[in-house]
Amino acid sequence: MSLRDPQLGPDGTLRHLLDLDRLDAAMLTRILDTAEGFTGVNDRSIRKVPLLRGKTVANLFFENSTRTRTAFELAATRLSADILNVDLVTSSTTKGESLLDTLRVLEALQCDLFVVRHGDAGAAHFIARQVDEAIVVVNGGDGRHGHPTQGLLDMFTIRRHKQRFDDLVVVVVGDIRHSRVARSDIAALVTLGVAEVRVAGPRTLLPAEVESLGVRVFDDLDTALVDADVIMGLRLQKERMSGATVPSGAEFYRTFGLSPERLSLAKPDALVMHPGPTNRGVEIAASVADGPQSVILEQVTWGIAIRMAVMSMIIGDRASVAAVEAAGAAGAAGAAGPAGPAGAARAAGDYAGGDAGGDAGGDAGDSVGHSTVFDR
Predict the structure, then answer these.
(1) Between 4 and 84, whose confidence is greater?
(2) Is the dihedral of CA 100, 105, 111, 114 positive or negative?
(3) CA-to-CA distance for 224 and 171, rounded, in angstroms?
(4) In terms of DSSP H, where are the helices of the chain?
(5) How do strand 169-173 and strand 113-118 relate by DSSP bridges?
(6) DSSP single-letter state for residue 272
(7) Which residues contact 306 (CB under 8 A, 6 or more apart)?
(8) Residue 32 DSSP code
(9) To the nearest whole number, what is the mean pLDDT of the chain?
(10) Are strands 169-173 and 230-233 parallel, antiparallel or unpaired?
């Protein structure tokens, strides 16, 4: 990890989250462990903790993305932050005001954290360099460059089912060339030491020199799927394509769509993942997307915990967040079984005041480890 990484403070703690390819395995694991510690919040009678009470999170979305904005908004709400949703698609930036002018106005409103979604690669990095030192930035997706919280929630979902990464074969299939999700996923998988990352797709949808990312390239999806542990489908990014890069949806499905027959080539317990929204009958068969091996909806659920982890690690009370991380690490270490297992959820959930019978104790502050973390 470079000491010059703008994502890190002088003491090595997370300051911004801009991409994943410059974060080491230890930092990625810390984020996953902290997210594990927040999973129990979902089980509380009141699904809020006060770690960001008094903080203001501004969602700066320069392009539409209902899913990502909603996930960040819900995560901030559960951390008790105040939320400012700024629709920059139709705001003053389209009326002649420059981006820097808009940033200065938002700084004057004394926001603490900007979640930035932008159609241009590098936009989040640019904003992080321009804003006041008191403001931190989380990249909610920038052009074709990256989508770090999506990559993190994908890693979290995999770890909940497979527990470890070093013996996994992961297949990423589809429009890798235009996908910011693919870049973040591949960076995280390689950093976390996955045994093999395979990519498959039409050559027109693969980036130049894709092998330099640390992956093995397959022109034939059937071959790529043999003995796969995880299959990550991608949405065809038609809005970022120029020209006819794929003949048709039907042709894509015939050659690279994830059908039940193709899924049978992978291991029987292989996970099926997709960042959504899915194009059924093009990227994936409906029966596969809704089938028993699909964890697509789980990805949505765990996206809340991941975003809670990232925001709390950046602007939350460090002692409280460290306690959440420790609880999450203990829960993850004791995890067993494919469902994100009760042992892990209970270990973290109890510490958060989240399990049955613990709501009253945790909220009232009369149970050791509950209010000491979340109610200070």
Answers:
(1) 84
(2) negative
(3) 7
(4) 25-38, 66-78, 99-108, 123-130, 148-162, 180-191, 221-225, 249-256, 260-263, 286-289, 296-315, 318-333, 342-351, 358-364, 371-374
(5) unpaired
(6) E
(7) 31, 35, 149, 152, 153, 156
(8) H
(9) 86
(10) parallel
Q: Which tokens hold the place of 340? A: 């994100």
**Given this model, what pLDDT does residue 45 score?**
87
75 pLDDT more than 90: yes
The span from the CA of 333 to the CA of 340, in Å, is: 12
Q: Calculate mean pLDDT across residues 93-106.
A: 74
Angle (CA) 283-286-290 rounded to 5° is 115
What own/partner pairs with CB < 8 Å and gap ≥ 24 does 246-253 have?
246/202, 246/204, 246/205, 249/279, 249/281, 249/282, 250/282, 252/202, 252/282, 252/283, 253/281, 253/282, 253/283
Longest dimension (CA), the chain: 64
Assigned token pair, 268:
């029987």
Tell me which residue has tokens 């930036």. 93
Distance CA 351, CA 313 (A): 17
Q: Which of left, alpha, beta for 323 (phi over 0: left; psi -120 to 50: alpha)? A: alpha
Delineate the domains of the chain, giving CATH numbers in brackets.
25-146+300-326 (3.40.50.1370), 148-298 (3.40.50.1370)
The contacts of residue 68 (CB under 8 Å, 6+ apart) are 117, 140, 141, 147, 149, 150
Integer angstrom CA distances of residue 157 from 15, 67, 160: 24, 17, 5
Print burial letters for 343-352: b (CB count within 10 Å at least 16), e (below 16).
bbbbbbbbbb
